[in-house]
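STRUCTURE REQUEST FORM
Protein name: MaoC dehydratase-like protein
Source organism: Mycolicibacterium moriokaense
Requested output: C-alpha cells
Priority: standard
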Amino acid sequence: MTDKTEFREKLDALIGKPTGGSGKPTIAPDPVNQPMIRHWCHALDDMNPVYLDAEFADKSRFGGIVSPPVMLQTWIMPSPKIEGIAERGGVPMEMGRNPASFIEDAGFTSIVATNSEFEIERYPRLGDVISVTQVFEDVSDEKKTSLGTGHFVTWLSTYTDQNGEVLGRQRFRVFRFKANR
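Status: completed
Returned output:
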C-alpha cells in the first residue's frame, strides 16, 4: 500500500464524521432576537421590513419578525475568547483536536475558502434557539491549481431549531494545498 493510497483512505474516512469536538450539536448562546437582527440589517444595509418592522411582519406570510436566513451561521457563533488568541493563531475560540489535522501534517498547510452555499428550509423566528451539527461531506482527489496542489474539503452544517426542525443547510468548501514556490 502506498502513502498516497493510505492518505486517500484517511481522507475518505472523514466523510460523514463530525468536523470536530464531541460530534454533539453546537447550541446558540442566545435565542434569535431583535437587537442582533437589527445590527445585521444595518451592517449589511438590508432594510427588509419583515426583519425590522413588527407591524409589517405581523401582516406578512411569516406572521411576525423573522431573521435573515443567512444569519444562521451567526446565531451559533460563541462569544470570542481573547485570552490566548495569539497562541491559537488568531482563532477567537478554543477548539478541540481537528480530525482532519493529518491533512496539514501531510504538507497541505495553506488554506483558502472557496465557496459557501446555503439551502434555506424556513426563516428563523424570534425566540428560536438554533443549533448546528457539522460533518465532512466530501474531499476531492488531489487537484493542481495556480495556488498549488491540494484537496477541496467540504463540510455540511445543518441548522435546526429547538424542536429539531431543519432551518437550513450550509456547505462550506476550502482548498487545503501545498503552495507553489
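Reviewer notes: The radius of gyration is 19 Å. Residues 3-14 form the longest helix (12 residues).
Form closed.
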